[in-house]
Structures are given as C-alpha cells and as structure tokens.
Amino acid sequence: MISENYGKVMLAIEKAAARSGRQPEEVKLVAVTKTVGVEEVRLAASLGISDFGENRVQDAVEKVKTFPQLKWHFIGHLQSNKVKDVLPYYVMIHSLDRLSLAGALQRWAERMDRKVEALVQVNVSGEESKFGLLPEELSAFLTKLKSFDRLNIRGLMTMAPFFDDPEDTRPCFRLLRQLRDESVRSGFTLADLSMGMTNDYVVAVEEGATIVRIGSALFA
User: Fold this and answer.
1) Could you tell me what percent of the chain has a pLDDT over 70?
2) CB 141 within 8 A of CB 151
3) Do 23 and 66 form a contact (C-beta atoms < 8 A)?
4) 97 to each of 26, 28, 75, 76, 193, how far by Cα in Å?
5) Main-chain dihedrals φ then ψ at residue 52, nearest 5 degrees
6) In CATH, what number is assigned to the domain containing residue 189?
7) Where are the beta strands (DSSP E) in 49-208?
8) What is the predicted pLDDT for the residue at 58?
9) Helix (H, G, I), strand (E, B), or coil: what is residue 6?
C-alpha cells in the first residue's frame, strides 16, 4: 500500500511541477511519520524515501534512533528546552518563529560545534491556533537572525488552513512565495518553501513549494 501511495504522490508532484514550469526534482518529499511506527518507516525508506518528518520530540525517539542514516526534519512547534534533544538527530528545523528559540539553537549549536539548518515559520493565514510570525514581522525577524552565526536560514515554512477544496489554500501559498521573493530582493538568501501537506500539496507545488510534508497520503 505504501509503495502504491508513494507512486501516486510522486506522479502528482511531477504533474504539478510541470504545470508551474519546474522539474519534479526541485520538490523534496518529507514523509511525515507521526502516526506510524518503525516498520512503516523501514518500508518507506526501502522505496527510496530519504527525508522524514516528526513534530513531537518524545514520540519520535525510537524511530529517529533506529534510522540515524535517514534525514529527519523537525516540523512541529519546538520548545526552547527541547532543543538539546532535537539537534543531535535532525537535519532541519522547520518551525523557527521567535528569537528565544533562535538563541537556544545558537547556544546548543555552539556547544555541538555545528550549524543548524532552519526555516522561518510564517502564519500567513492569521489563524490564532497556528504558530509563526505574521507576514509583516518577517523582514525585521530575518534581519535580527543575521547575528546568529550558527543558524543557516534556508527559507520559509507555513501551514495553510484545512479546506474541503484545496484550491482555497492557494492564496496562502502564493503569499508565502511572495514573501520569500520580497525577502530575496532585500538581500536575504532563502531557497526553500516548505508548504503543502496531504490535502493541499498539489496546489503548494504549483505555487512554488520546494518541500512538501506528506503523511496520510503515504501511510493511510
């Protein structure tokens, strides 16, 4: 089932990328494993999936330690006091949204003598239930992050509201792309857009996503 699902997802990404004038290789699939166990991860990895995402530190411990050769992305809200538990195992933090977290990442990165790949989370929908900076806060935040020399800010991340019609998510993804493009014109280097999940990843790819976070479309 996972093999069949994977084929369908990759075909959908390929077609969406073509519609936006891009190559499918420009879109990274992160398989979200928060609802599945070690065996499902093993099977997904055997299909050639190399990037996996988790959003809770403790729930992911067994999977992350079982497969250290895989690339693990932390995609959930990260508390500053959990940074020390996350950094040894994850290649990218998708949810940098405040200076206190940047400070914690900087301190632990210095202790570990490493760089931290991170994405800045933006709340493009304005929903109070979602984490992330407001769009108008982004430029000032990126400027402040320049002083954190252990952080490599790779791009932006967002979570769109859930809609029955995925087309309704398009304005959110388009806004994130516009924010990225404006930031690049202002001198920031932001290559990645992490946006789109099972319900709306096709629209996200059409709007420029370079990373999609897919769970149930793979593992259901």
Assistant:
1) 100
2) no
3) no
4) 25, 22, 12, 11, 15
5) -130, 150
6) 3.20.20.10
7) 51-54, 71-74, 90-96, 116-121, 151-157, 192-194
8) 86
9) helix
Whole-angstrom distance between the N-terminal and C-terminal Cα of the chain? Answer: 8
Tokens of 68: 């250290």
Provide mean pLDDT across the span 146-170: 96
Identify the CA nearest to 179 among candidates 200, 158, 161, 205.
158
From the list 124, 138, 216, 218, the residue with the least C-alpha distance to 175 is: 124
Q: How far is CA 141 from CA 98, 112, 132, 186, in A?
A: 8, 25, 11, 13
**Phi and psi torsions of 189, nearest 5°:** -100, 105
Instruction: Write out the residue range of the structural domain in which residue 179 sits.
Output: 2-219
* Token duo for residue 71: 């690339």
Tokens coding 54: 């988790």
**Considering only CA atoms, which of 172, 96, 84, 187 is closest in space to residue 133?**
96
Q: Token match 């969406």: residue?
A: 16
Separation CA 212–CA 32 (nearest Å): 10
- pLDDT, average across residues 138-161: 97
Task: Please give the average per-residue pLDDT across 183-200, as a whole number.
Answer: 97
Question: Phi then psi for 74, rounded to 5 degrees?
Answer: -95, 115
